Amino acid sequence: MKRDDIIEYSLHNHHSEEEGVKKRKEIWKVTIILSVITIIEVTMGIMLGKVGFLNDQAAWDMIKLAYIGLTVVKAGYIIMTFMHLGEERKPLRWLILAPYMFFALYLLFFLLVEANADVKI
Amino acid sequence: MAGEATQQLTTKELWAGKRSPFSISYGKMMMWFFLISDALTFTGFLASLAFMRVYFADVWPITENIFYHFPFFHHTELPLLYVAFMTFILIISSVTMVLAVEAGHRMDKKGVTKWLFLTVIGGAVFLGSQAWEWSTFIQGSEYGAYDMGDGTMGRILNEEGTEILMRDGSVVTGAEAADIKSTQRVVKGANLIENEYGLPLYADFFFFITGFHGTHVLSGVIINLLILLRVRKGEFEETGHYEMVEKVGLYWHFIDLVWVFVFTFFYLV
User: Is residue B246 in a domain?
Assistant: First the structure.
């Protein structure tokens, strides 16, 4: 017997031709953003390596922070637009992101503190 | 994607039971749960890399001096360009995947087939590139490198071994180079025990992180291919929706997402 009280969520995901045009526009926009960020990262890597301030630690730290920032922006676009998490319900978004962020930041925090410790093996 | 999730429902209605409070099907939910656990595994890898990278900051190899090869350009050094190309391929295959999902929402079988096929091609190109990258890394540079004894290596630039590129970018020649040549041993190529680019640890991380990611890409390509066959057979026309494409799409985007982080933390930082 087929139950009629089950909601088929997948069927609700269909959209019309016009909506499709809008969605595709959004996808191409994100594609361009991701490509531009990648190009910026690689150009930074190639150009800055040749400038010769390899010994200027503060400058390198800034560049590395910039890399990490750009990566987080890229990851945000992939998760929110390509994986459609931005369109899901808010509790689901937190259910997925919060536990992961907690464990990832926890691990990174302690490992980086330990790596910078004065006592070397 | 939109649909049920955009409907205005009160918290009471959502959580009263007989429905998913997240407006999501069981299969998609489980895919997300799997992705979280998989993401934590990759985080473990990258966090341990970060630990070693900071701990051995003084002697850690410089990526620009390792990944400078490019197919068909044997005598020019093009640092990081090939990895950038691989990153680009993976991003584009992620785009074709999201276009396949979009086509699925319009029940456009031809569109899904086309975009999913291109995604499989993109994944295959990435795998091929990965294989080439590995073989280049394992073979090493033309003449190998001297083990400097302090964890760093000096790459040999000419056949006689009298020109040596040090980690800090300086080139050593003459008597100093001859001295290094007579006292230090030569390492060529990299494996889990030896690494001509620097710490053996670096090669271990390279093989484990890119290898684990490559295994994901391989299984992703196989899964995409299987779903492509099912699309071709018209199975999802019968079911009435292409949610299966959406689920494998989530996995495929996740692979792209991981690579974005590997690219930054392994190659750039």
Answer: yes
